[in-house]
Specification:
- The chain is an alpha+beta fold.
- It has one domain: Alpha-Beta Plaits, CATH 3.30.70.100.
- It has three helices and four strands; from the N terminus they run βαββααβ.
- A four-stranded antiparallel β-sheet has the order 2-3-1-4.
- The chain starts with a strand and ends with a strand.
Length: 94
């Protein structure tokens, strides 16, 4: 299993657009056969930061996610264009 958290930071004026983009990306991503979990979250004390907890069955499933039309449209063409910061934290099950 491949698990990680993506941390993104956006400008306050982009909150509405980011929320709409995340809803569309989440809906499509959860339909992927290799997606186990796709959960976007905001921080309680920082509404301009978004965490996305993602889990995939294997690396091939993650690769397919990143190559999908919806990832290209909503992540690359949407979120990535407005993000101010991005960090990925790879996770390992205990």
């Amino acid at each position: 299993m491949v698990s990680f958290i993506v941390r993104l930071r956006f400008a306050p004026e982009d909150r509405t657009d980011i929320a709409e983009t995340l809803r569309a990306l989440t809906e499509a991503s959860r339909k992927e056969s290799g997606c186990i979990s796709y959960i976007p979250l905001t921080l309680e004390d920082d509404a301009d930061s978004v965490l996305i907890f993602e889990q995939y069955t294997n690396q091939a499933a993650l690769d397919a996610h990143r190559e999908s039309d919806h990832f290209q449209r909503y992540a690359i063409g949407g979120l990535y264009q407005k993000m101010r910061e991005r960090n990925v934290e790879n996770l390992r099950a205990i």
